User: Fold DNA mismatch repair protein MutL from Enterococcus sulfureus ATCC 49903.
Amino acid sequence: MAKILELSEQLANQIAAGEVVERPASVVKELVENAIDAKSTQIDIYLEEAGLKKIQIVDNGEGIAAEDVSQAFKRHATSKIYNQADLFRIRTLGFRGEALPSIASVSKVTVETSSEGEVSGTRLVLVGGKMERHEKAALRRGTKITVEQLFFNTPARLKYVKTIQTELANIGDIVNRLALSHPSIAFRLFHEGNQMLRTSGNGELRQTIAGVYGVQTTKKMRSIEAKDLDFTIRGYVSLPEVTRASRNYISTIINGRYIKNFVLNKAITQAYGSKLMVGRFPIAIIEIEMDPLLVDVNVHPTKQEVRLSKEAELVTLLKQSISEALREENLIPNAYENK
Ligand code: ADP
Ligand code: MG
Assistant:
């Protein structure tokens, strides 16, 4: 008898979920990224028990057409890339077609969605990746996706999950970064009915920062701007007197994607030189636009690590723009920025 057998789809999805769905915050990240990719202008996130009981994301984006809904839960099924050329020019946050099948394989998922020009929407219920219901439903345009009983069938993962406070802090952190990366989208985050975050969505990065870190902190930030042939940098950095004890308040965003890059984060801190005390770090939100051909986002399933061509050039430009903004004469309170 043959010993080598192909894994069932359900098992393959659960294995992928091991990488993509580490904790409630990963579910929130993947679902919000889908809402962003669907061109939503309003995204609301509702949590119960830090997402362990319930995560619900409501968006006003393009929705999913009835004929596509079940396809969205198949492994490697995506509407975002179709060929190899697309893979090298990724503009969307998703492209691997892994999130929905992975999440569905370890929870109970209800999707309610309706796309432009459809008479009625669709409601789909999956439990542990198995389709339980697929029906028509009267809905407004957009997508509402509800994830319950997370990790009900993967006890080891459930054990790994930490306290409500820790998981909630992780979700808050990821939603902050997603909001900072998308000033044109109005975000709201609720836990047990209490609002934890609200951003205006009016396209002003400064106002989004105020929504996330507060108006007082934002007043102590200076704008940076730089451009060369390959990169456009925009953003805000805190004055040297406004620091934090961790690097967690540095957000580097490349083409709308929040990324983790040690070299860039180090460059940001180094630009402060001796202005920072040891063990203190600035608050910084840095948006970098570059040709997608220069960024390889296909490095890790969560896509937070990327490989950059011309990294050294970017580091130089970034450091210059920050030291410029922090030059003594620029540190004098600026009437416009303090408004
Ligand atoms: P990926 O984002 O990599 O394409 P996903 O598994 O996250 O893979 O989603 C599969 C597909 O489902 C997406 O390509 C998209 O077409 C559709 N989809 C998922 N979420 C939404 C949403 N909130 N609004 C519209 N379409 C969505
Ligand atoms: Mg996705």
